[in-house]
Amino acid sequence: MTTTIPGPDGRPRCRWCAAAPEFFAYHDTEWGFPVDDDHRLFEKLCLEGFQSGLSWRTILAKRENFRAAFEGFAFERIAGFTAADVDRLLKNDGIVRHRGKIEAVINNARRALELVETEGSLAAHVWRFEPSSAELGPPQSASTSPASVALSKDLKKRGWSFVGPTTVFAFMQAMGLINDHAEGCVVRDAVDRARAAFVRPGNAGA
């Protein structure tokens, strides 16, 4: 089976884009490009948790609703959510109404605040788990990795929930901690360039 398909412009893209037409824009402009913004990183961890048992297409279609419901994933604000907010969110049909996942976002927001207090930023901590190229297999050949297992264990130890190794691996793929674009994908080289130019958070003054 080939690992790429032609995109709207005829150039090759990762095969998973074929699942939905809206995947092309996400694939071309977001997936795999390195991110150091704490709120975007927190958002992705939360959305990957919501995706558990569902499709990414479902979550992507509701992403703006999630952003509105969860204050733009500003964990500083979500940490103050109460039981009344959980009840409110359970009535919001624009998101995935799953009590455990909603409560996990609130819990993880509080844990994120603690992590920022001790580690400086969520970004600085997450990027410490960036794997070396020697650790990586062929693109899109795995659903977990030693690095995703390590970060998952670290977050769970800190009290985070819905952050299993598969969820964390998908997060790492999307947030650019690895370049998992298929060989031959037109975006792979662009991600390589972006990662080469990217200043890893926490390096300054280290």
Automatic annotation (TrEMBL):
It holds the Pfam family Adenine_glyco. SUPFAM superfamilies: DNA-glycosylase. InterPro entries: Adenine_glyco (IPR005019), DNA-3mA_glycosylase (IPR052891), DNA_glycosylase (IPR011257). It comes from the Bacteria. This is DNA-3-methyladenine glycosylase I.
